């Protein structure tokens, strides 16, 4: 299992070659272009998703922000997956989403919540596939995204152009047609 940038798990791969890393960097660049001025409207829809990963170094911070003693937080709010990761225990919505659709631990929320939806594995992997396969349809690859969500609507209306730019850079690097 190889890991890119400490968080993108590439199953079935022993290592990342320099060529693959250059392509991953292109895909990552596309994702990160959304980071500045990201149109989060705090609608709370993403907080109904399962599989909110929490990193070991985030556990103490999030439990404090939630006002839950660490040992109780670990027992009641976390689950461990078979591959050793930790997730917030699945509830719908997330246990920290308030009735006003605001996150109760916003300043201290897990990194995956900060990254959503442009920096999470699913989106990153689809962008990577589209950058590497010049004929892949990025809109088809990202059709799991619900365009009625404020953030994903913006992403899906602009992603094709960004992928095309990354493909052009890749063609220049590799000499591919
Ligand atoms: S669904 Fe998108 S716009 Fe709504 S809160 Fe989540 S990140 Fe923000
Ligand atoms: S921690 Fe906050 S931002 Fe993350 S899923 Fe829960 S309510 Fe949403």
Order of helices and strands: EEHHHEEHHHH
**End-to-end C-alpha gap:** 31 Å
The overall pLDDT, averaged over residues, is 93
What molecules are bound to this protein?
Answer: iron/sulfur cluster
The Cα radius of gyration reads 18 Å
Structural class by SSE content? mainly alpha
Integer count of domains: 2
Strand order of the largest sheet: 1-2
Q: Estimate the helix proportion, in percent.
A: 40-55%
Counting DSSP E segments of at least 2 residues, the number of strands comes to 4
Low-pLDDT runs: none
Envelope shape = globular
Question: What fraction of the residues are assigned to beta strands by DSSP?
Answer: 5-15%
- Biggest beta-sheet profile: 2 strands, antiparallel
Helix count from the secondary structure assignment = 7
Task: Tell me about this structure.
The chain folds into two domains: 18-38 and 118-174, no CATH class; 50-113, no CATH class. The protein has seven helices and four strands. It has helices at 18-32, 59-66, 70-77, 111-115, 121-132, 138-141, 150-174, and strands spanning 2-4, 8-10, 78-80, 86-88. The strands form two sheets. The protein has a two-stranded antiparallel ribbon with strand order 1-2. Strands 3-4 form a two-stranded antiparallel sheet. Helix 1 (18-32) runs antiparallel to helix 7. Residues 40-46, 116-117, 149-151 line the site of one iron/sulfur cluster.
